[in-house]
Every structure is written in structure tokens, then in C-alpha cells.
Amino acid sequence: MTVETFDPGNDTPKAVQPNTTHATKVAPAMGQGRGTGTRIGFISLGCPKNLVDSERILTQLRTEGYDVVNSYDGADLVIVNTCGFIDSAVQESLDTIGEALNENGKVLVTGCLGAKEDEIREVHPKVLGITGPHAYEMVLEQVHNHLPKPEHDPLTALIPDHGVKLTPRHYAYLKISEGCNNRCTFCIIPALRGDLVSRPIGEVLDEAKRLKEAGVKELLVISQDTSAYGLDVKHKTGFWNGMPVKTRMTELCEKLAEMGIWVRLHYVYPYPHVDEVIPMMAEGKILPYLDIPFQHASPKVLKAMKRPGKAERTLEQIKKWREICPDLVIRSTFIVGFPGETEEDFQLLLDWLEQAQLDRVGCFKYSPVEGAVANDLAELIDDEIMEDRYQRFMAVAARISAERLQARVGTEMRVIVDELNDEGAVARAYSDAPEIDGKVILGGEFDVEVGQMVWASIEFANEYDLYATIVRDDNDEIEDLG
Ligand code: SF4
């Protein structure tokens, strides 16, 4: 089962393919457990931030000796970590809770939809307990109320230092903060997840180091607003390895760059100080990849959205970034059909997109999420008009994507292998984030492993993916990305 979620709170990283939104996973459980006989099933829905929350809860459960099992039948209780942004995500979450209740009967709910307890109780009054997002301790407390902590078991010592991970071994999400201080009018994430709270920089860097030591080769930095990191603590100086480090995106990137693995930035809000990380990308210290949700280009719509950025200035900024770092790949998300968007506004957006030549672009039709200020700003756009704009937008985005990928044919790129299949292997280059961007399909005969880095010769491109053959092995550092 996968769940589609539009999570504009995180300015959802869905990229190039139309009709696909960020999808994460699920499982009644992860089969991680070998504990003491007290068994919990776990279902994780939604965005990477939710996935990280799930990892933390699962780590704590395993630390306390609970067994995590992968069937409803075998579980003494099931936890559903929900997504609650747009209507389809809410519905999927409610359906999943219903399924867990039917199949098991003892269900705890947490995550974004948990912030709307009444809505859940109305449909599922039998749920045992409900908590909101990133309420790790409260989830554990509720678990203890229904399933007493198991006796300490030496098997818990088998939990790795980096905790339970739900991503493949070679990449991991690094969540640097919770919440958001912005108030984009289409978004209810601040209401669900609260204001910005940055994690101490020493703690973030410790986690990054542990992940690297566990074999992670690619860190995906996530938050609601990565460029705001440290604003809430006035960028105070923390410590790592005995050295002072400011709680700030640039300084964080500098330290992560020293770890010698791929570092990819997601959810970067277009503040001016984003300029500071571009030289690091040009030098190959962090991946030349920016996930920066622009959302629109019409000044009127951006203002109504309460988003920053005059579109012209953003174009200049992009041009400057590319001059400094020609390899830079920019991915972004946009909303069409925002209340009050006129054909002229939309045309401005299309023109802007043509000029910006973004590599990876996702688009969402405006969804009137309950509680979003934008719903009352102007009349909602008619569905047919919205669909028409969506199709026109995606057609332009797809053409640009195809042209930009075509330019890679004949080059060599360093790629990381994500999966092996009967026909070969599926890999990604620096230009693509897992799950949300395109792929590099490797054909031919070769002997590679998941997580291995190799150099590939790009032979063919379509609108979203590249097709290549492996030319040589390479497990070294991240230089020469192009
Ligand atoms: S309010 Fe914050 S979380 Fe929501 S879209 Fe704006 S920046 Fe993202």
C-alpha cells in the first residue's frame, strides 16, 4: 500500500512525474523485532519527516524491548503514524486506521492527523489513543498504558547506534528541525506541527556521523524549512567534537561536507543566504542539488500565498547560482489553481518556468485543506480550469525536463545503485533524490550491489529518466560529480 500525500508544509518533494505525489510507505511493521514477545505492528504514512518520526518511535520501542512484527495478526497493538494534509491523505489515514481496527482492534494513532483528534474519533471512536506529530514520548506513554514495558532483555543491545532505520542502508533522512515559523496561506503545517524548533547542531552532527559509520552514503537533510535552521535559537553557537559551530544552515553544511558522503538539501526556502551554500556545491563538498519550492511566480499570487520572492529576483538568483555552479540541479514544486489565480497569473508562471529552466518540477492542483487561510481569500478555481492549467504546466515542465536530460546523453555520471532487478539495476545520480525524482536505469551485464557507487555512461534519456551502462567502479569520494 502506498499513500499519496500533498505535504506543502514540507513543500512536498514530488518531482517530475505528473500525478504522483510524495508517497511513503507502509507496512504493518517492519520486521525489525526480535524482542520479548510483546509485539507491536507499525504503519508509517506520509512524508520523509513522518518517516523519521516513525524511526524514532520504533527505535525507542525496540530499545525498551518491544518486538516489532509485520502482521496485524501477530501484533498485540498497532500504531498508525498518519499524514493529515490534503483530503486524500486524510482519507487514506482514516482508511488505514479502519483497516488496523478491523484486523487487529487495538490501535494507537499518531502523526499529523492526530492533531485533529475529533475528526478521527468521529469516524473511529474505538481508537485507544491519539497523539499529534513528533510526540514520541506521549506515544510511548500510551503504549506503556496498554502494553506494560517488557522485562529488560539483552537482545535490545542488538539495536544499532543509529537506531531503527526505515530507508535502505545506503541513504538516510537527517531531520534538523521541527515546525515552521512561516505562515504560507495554503498550509496548515504550522498549526499541526507548531513553530520552528531546531535540533541542537551537535546532536544533528552526531546523528550524521553515526549514520555514516553505519554505512550510509547519502544524507538527505530535511525539515519544514531547512534554510531557517537555527533562527529560533538566534543561531547560537553549539559544540561538536569539542569545536564551536553555529546553529545555522551554512555551518551545518560545512560540517556535513567534511564527512565525505553525499549531502542533499531538501525544503530550502528561498532566503538570500541560500547563496552561501552554492560555492560549497561548486566545490563538490555537498551535492549541487537544491530542492527549493517556489510555489508560483506571479507576484500577486505569491503575495496571497505569503511566500517570499519576487519572481524576477529569483530568476536573477538562479542565473547567479548557475554561473557559480554550472552543475546545479534545481527541483521545485508549484501550486496551480490557487484561489484568485487568473489566466494572466498562470501565464506568468508558465513564462517564468520557461526562463528558469528548472530540472525537476512537481505541480499540485490547489487543495482547499480545512483550516487553510487561502480558502477564504478568493473564490476557489473551477476544477476544469485547474485541471487544464495543471496539464499545461506539466507539459512545459516535462519538455524542459526532457531537454535538460537530453543534454546529459554522452556524458558520464557517478551513480548510486538503489535496487537490482531482472533487467539490471536502478540507480540515481546526484541530480535525483530517492523516491521523488528520476532514475538512472543501468542495462547490460555487471556485478554491482545495492548502495554501490559506479560511473555510468548515459546513452539515452526520456522525459524523466536516464538510461546508461556502467563504465567503471568507484567507491571513493564525491568529487567530479558531472
Ligand atoms: S508554512 Fe512553513 S511548512 Fe507550510 S508551506 Fe510555508 S514554509 Fe512550508
Automatic annotation (TrEMBL):
Full protein name: Ribosomal protein uS12 methylthiotransferase RimO
PROSITE patterns: MTTASE_N, MTTASE_RADICAL, RADICAL_SAM, TRAM
Keywords: 4Fe-4S, Cytoplasm, Iron, Iron-sulfur, Metal-binding, Ribonucleoprotein, Ribosomal protein, S-adenosyl-L-methionine, Transferase
Sequence similarity: Belongs to the methylthiotransferase family. RimO subfamily.
GO BP term, pick one: tRNA modification
Start and end residues of each stretch annotated as Disordered: 1-32
Encoding gene (name): rimO
GO CC annotation, single: ribosome
